[in-house]
Amino acid sequence: MKSARLRYFNAAGADPAAEIGEDHDPETHLIPLVLDAALVRRPNVTVFGTDYPTPDGTAVRDYVHVEDLARAHVLALQHLLDNGDTIAVNLGTGHGASVRQVVDTARRITGREIVSRDASRRAGDPPALVADAKKASEVLGWAPQYSDLAAIIADAWRWHNKRFGSKSL
Fold first, then answer.
1. pLDDT in tens, 3-36
2. pLDDT, tens digit, for every residue of 55-80?
């Protein structure tokens, strides 16, 4: 039996029509936490670590839009249906955004104040995690199309604001 293993980096965003989005309890993902702070559903967002060896001292992660991930699934299924070999590929943009960049981009997109609070690093968090998605490109013909940080946050904001806009603290 053949299979396709798709290794997501930081899945983020929402359906551009704001019909489906991300809501966990408890929420642990940065972008929904930042948007919750924009909606005052939480008093602030915590920035874990400001002393990493990164340009602004905060952790860097590779955010990939859920629309791009959905397309990767379709391409992987087509690969298998076309009798392709078993594959394992990374799905990400190949570049990262820092925690501060995420917060600053969300402030710009939402037009809201987002209070951030600095805290110590969490044990085990690496300074940067960024995908090498070259194999996904070569084998599946996949490349991210919607994974610009501003686009990810704008789509997530539309969904968050639609779902939670009137439910602030």
1. 999 999 999 999 999 999 998 899 999 999 999 9
2. 999 999 999 999 999 999 999 999 99
CATH no. for residue 8?
A: 3.90.25.10
* Residue 169 counted as domain residue: no
The domain total for the chain is 1
Please give the structure tokens belonging to residue 18.
């704001």
Helix (H, G, I), strand (E, B) or coil at 90: strand
Whether the ω angle into residue 26 lies within 30 degrees of 0, i.e. cis, is: yes
Q: Kindly give the pairing relationship between strand 97-98 and strand 60-61.
A: antiparallel
Q: Is residue 93 part of a domain?
A: yes
Contact criterion met (CB below 8 Å) for 108 and 38: no
Domain housing 88: 4-161
Domain membership flag for residue 156: yes
Extract the runs of DSSP E, i.e. beta strands, from 19-156.
Answer: 45-48, 60-61, 63-65, 87-91, 97-98, 116-119, 128-129
Tell me, yes or no, whether 167 lies in a domain.
no
Token pair for 160? 């968050």
